[in-house]
Design a protein that fits this description.
Elements: H1 2-21, E1 77-81, H2 101-113, E2 120-124, H3 127-131, E3 140-141, H4 149-152, E4 155-157, E5 162-164, E6 166-171, E7 190-193, H5 197-206, E8 213-215, H6 218-226, E9 232-236, H7 237-247, E10 251-257, E11 265-267, E12 270-272, H8 278-290, H9 293-301, E13 310-311
Parallel strand pairs: 1-2, 1-3, 7-8, 7-9, 10-13
Antiparallel strand pairs: 4-12, 5-11, 6-9, 6-10
Helix pairs in contact: 2-8, 2-9
Amino acid sequence: MLRNRTLLGLLVVVGLAAAACGGGDAGGDTTAAPETTAAPETTQATEAPDTTAAPETTMATNPCGPDGLATVQPGVLTVATGEPAFPPWVIDDDPTNGQGFESAVTYAVADYLGYGADQVTWIRTGFDDAIAPGPKDFDFNIQQYSITADRDEVVDFSVPYYTTNQALVAYGDSAVAGAASVGDLTGAKLGAQVGTTSFDYIELVIQPETPAAAYDTNADAKLALDAKQIDGLVFDLPTAFYITAVEIPEASIVGVFDVSPDQADNFGLLMADGSPVKACVDEALEALRADGTLDALAAEWIVTGSELTTIAP
């Protein structure tokens, strides 16, 4: 009996042990699969491209330079002078060589404005033709144009680039050789290029009894003096210096007419009325005067320094 009770106890223990090792459903896999945790999604931030355009760099245009100045020919400075052009204003009748006072002044103005020598074009005009009203085929004309109120009504002038007085030229045996005053010239026969302030000076200031002889060019006037058809010629002083030194060395300067500063001859660059280049040309000339360039060019090209007689009013 004790033996049976012991056997029964062993069977119960074995059964409990088997139950402890069993699963839920018969034959089912009761091992839970390991939980798979998804890796966190990695989102790479993509920087949006900068669509802001870089500021455009704009070079300022020089309003007085080849790209800004409203010249007759775009990008070119067209300059007129006489035909022919004489020393000391232009040497060898070639304004392109930069020699002579007016040629040198022109290239100095062009350089200040930003034009190279190859951007300066020269043309020729008659003296009176250029003064006539109307449009011009040049930006400025340089041939000893005196600034006068009458001319300024139909054309524009720059500020002066040179100031001078009128002078009397004659041979030593002329009736006017010893003139000391305007009154001494009353009976003289005098001449000058027509349309010039020299001609006007004879007519309006000297007022000789014989009307002034008018010549189309200074060359014609010099031929008349050489032929002794007239007693004397009136020129601006620099031209008188050159004529008596080179072209008619037998003649001499009788004297310089005494005038007040406001009556002196102021030479200006002649332009069309309302010219768009005037302000820039004036700026250039003022700068060239301030830095001494105009005085230096005058000293280089215009003969001065001689002791001259003053012809009184």
